[in-house]
Design a protein that fits this description.
Blueprint lengths: L1 H22 L5 E3 L2 E3 L4 H22 L5 H23 L5 H27 L10
Antiparallel strand pairs: 1-2
Helix pairs in contact: 1-2, 1-3, 2-3, 2-4, 3-4
Amino acid sequence: MRILSTSVALAVFSAAMWFAWLGWDHEYYLVDGYPQGPYRAWQVIGAGATVVAGAVVAYAVVRRAWAIVPLAAAGALGFAIPWSIDAAQTDDSGLWVVGLILLLGGAGAGLLVVLAIATAVFRPRAVARPGA
C-alpha cells in the first residue's frame, strides 16, 4: 500500500513539475534566424532535475529494491501525460505520439538507472558484530 501511494504521489509531483517548468511556455524564439522551442534548455534541465529529485525522495520513503520499477514508471507517466495532452493539441502531423514513446522510454530508463543507484546509496551498511 505504501508503494502504491508513494507512486501516485510521485506521478502527481511529476505532472506538477511539467506544469511548473514547461506547461506555461508556448512561445518559439529565433536562433540564427531559425525558430527554436518552445522550451529552453534551463527549463528542461530544471524539470528533469526536480523529477529525479522527487523520485529519489520517493524511493527513500519506501526503501524497497523492487519498488524502483513502479516508481520509475510513475515518474515517467506523471510527466508524460500532461506533455502528451499539450503536444496533441498543437501537433497536426501526429508525431507527438513518437515524442510520447521516446519520452516514456527515456524518462523511464533514466529514472530506473537513478533509482538503481539510489538502492546502492540507501542500502543499510553491514554492521560487524563483536566476536564475529
